[in-house]
User: What shape does this take?
Amino acid sequence: MATEIEAWITRPQSDGVFSLEQELNEDGSCGSEDLNELEVNGNWTPQEKALHEAKLKAKAKRRLRKSSSRDSTRESLSESVSGEPSTDPHSPKGKNAVNDRKSRTGKGRGLPKKGGAGGKGVWGAAGMVYEVEEPDLKDPNYDESAQGDTVYATVVPELDEKELEKTINPIVQEYFEHGDTKEVEMLLKELNLGHHRYEFSSLAVSLSLEGKASQRELTSRLLSDLSGNVLSQDDMKRAFDKILKELPDLILDTPEAPQMLGQFIARAIADHALAMSFLDCYKGKVDCDHARAALDRASVLLSMKSGIMRLDNVWGVGGGQRPVKHLIKEMILLLKEYLVSGELTEAEHCLRALEVPHFHHELVYEAVIMVLESTGNTALQMMVKLLKAFWQTGLITLDQMNRGFQRAYDELPEISLDAPHAHSIMETFVDLCFQETVITKQLRDSCPTSRGRKRFVSEGDGGIVKT
Assistant: This one.
């Protein structure tokens, strides 16, 4: 048996398994004395011998798996194969350091993480030199106070075609009420019209074509004031080019659109909002009859003697900006034309065109004076009919009606000097107006009566009461 054990020990090693002699020396629990004892007893059976050998091999494999790294394992195996003595794991030099960062699980290469530069509280690998880094604006730790002055700017998105009309129409409609071009300029500067800036002029002109003469005058003034500040001559040119192309659609709602557009073009050229060469660009190049009519109208107005100076009143003086004497003449002419033609619709249209609802009491006063100075009942009946029509449509309000009659009451003594029967005519006219519900009962009762003195019975009268 001793001979077989010695043969097994001297057998070449394979598969990284330690020799029995090395294993027994490393274990320390089974030395040469134990083997000698086993030889002396000689009680080994083949089964016990095989079992003992298997235990030794398993123990050697467990020790191999407990090695700290593969490199150390390869190194120990190479040393054992070459025959060099291996390092004793129980010696102080062979023991692993307490703070060693090598893997204990048998995974990895046994090297420290990140080359020794990782972990909590680590500044990096030894000898590492950090370069100067440029500040990153997206860095959450970016300090803007240390980077110099910061400029803040408000970004306004550009209006698209759908939002443009919805935004500009209220601005133009409000301008027709207050007439302040400075406010419109301020509102436009707050908007980002972008390359659609020229469409403001085209929309403003299109809206004024459907409005009154006073609104067209305000639009011409607006284009003149915005020229050079908000709108350039190129923007004006593009705007009128667009309107000329849209004339076939505009005349459906405004039949006089070509003539009005021609006046707009002439006024814009006179105000230096549009270049003089605008008309020259279209000579011989216009196929649309409506556009040709508009350009011809503008050319005629500009070619007139002192035409540019007169173009300031191309739309007339609108509304309350007209002189009082001019408004009085217009109302007297309106009443005279009505007495001749008898057309209530035309009279109402002319009164609305004056755009002076605060001055309608003058029409009532002039109508009463014409009745007092007329002969016969024709004028009286027609004026009652006219005032009734204006009262029912709301064109003349209660306040304007009362003010007109009261002015006639106050001047009745002076009127009676030229018209002796003024008091009686006034009483008849007031009674008819009250019957037609044109005036109130209080206004009728305040009408002055005749001041003639009544005489009673006197000598030679025969008892007859004289007036």
Observations:
- DSSP finds 22 helices and no strands in the chain.
- The two ends are 182 Å apart (CA to CA).
